[in-house]
Design goal:
The structure is a single chain. The protein is an alpha/beta fold and 406 residues long. Helices cover 49% and strands 11% of the residues. Strands 1, 2, 3, 4, 5, 6 and 7 form a seven-stranded mixed beta sheet that branches. A hairpin with a 5-residue loop joins strand 4 and strand 5. The chain is globular.
Amino acid sequence: MTIKPNGFEPPHLLPALFETDKTNPHLAKAAELREIFARDAIERDQLGGRPDEQIGLLKETGLVNLLIPKEFGGAGERYSTAMRIVREFAKVDGSVAHLYGYHFSPLQNAVNTGPDERSRDILRRSAAGRWFWGNTTNSFSKSLFGRRDQGRVILNGFRPFASGSHVADYLMVAWEDEETNQRSFAYIPANREGITIAEDWDGIGQRQTGSGRVFYKDVVIDAGEILPERPHDPITLLAPLQQQSVLLNVFVGTAQGALIAARDYTVTQSRPWIYSGVERHSDDPWIKRQYGELWIKVQAATALADRALAALDAVYAKGPYLTADDRGEAAIAVASANVLAGRVALDVTSEIFEVMGARSAVRPLGFDRFWRNARIHTLHNPAEYKTRNVGTWFLTGEFPEPGIFQ
């Protein structure tokens, strides 16, 4: 790096606007896919339904196997790489970003809670078939029950918020025993007889995530498909942090994408206000100041998200040597990043309309999708309780008790 005599670093050496690290071949491929997804992202968002072509590209490129260890046929990449890809996709398409991040939940469960033969077999087969995963494991809904029957389990009921089930090859399913209420899990094909994927998701945002209901009618689960009960040690309790990291990186990518899109529109399309005294909208001191504030907010959220990813890479690397304190420190890092990312995403995706102008607020331009995606996604992840957890830790040193969202 060349530094001028007065210590000033030339502007061209400053970091680019949320530049993708294309030295990593997986991130480089994700950047290529991002541009492909962007071509019809607005139209697909407005239509809803299934992103079949996009899921097909994720399989074709092998990005679905990113976190499967090499010994089982995957790429064996660090967890942070997957979340950086989530950000890339969220810059243009929050739904595909959401689906891609959640696709890894069952796979991470198999990687981190093994090494039983069932998990090893699933990882090998998933890598070989380039499976895309969905889930029907919603923890709040006690609406799917299993009845024991000669060594098998028969499932009846439904699960809501089953993101990715509509495009999945395989599902992770959870149910309660109808007599004991004990919760169990299994990996099963998405086309198993008796499964009906309703595709009834009609949220204001994340329109292609398929986060509706999946119905089970006398669905047979063989004994060999049921996952063994896992010990509640720190490594098995990382699943909530993985889920939360998907959410926060969708938030960050959405904020980045909205800011980039708004800047481009402002520079090329926006007209100055009649009393501004400038010929170009981008020369208005008001516009410069507000964009400066938005840039600073998104930079801060990105930095905290990067810190959380480093913490998660560190705890995953420890494997069975992970301690409760290690997990607790990672939980605080993820919660802190999550709170800021959600707030910034909501702020940025709303405020961009003020600096773009009235002509930007029309449906064909699709800028509203950024806010709608951020708004609906943050509702599933209340910042209030994460903020309290961080405050409790700061005051007392007590880590949050491991749970569904912490």
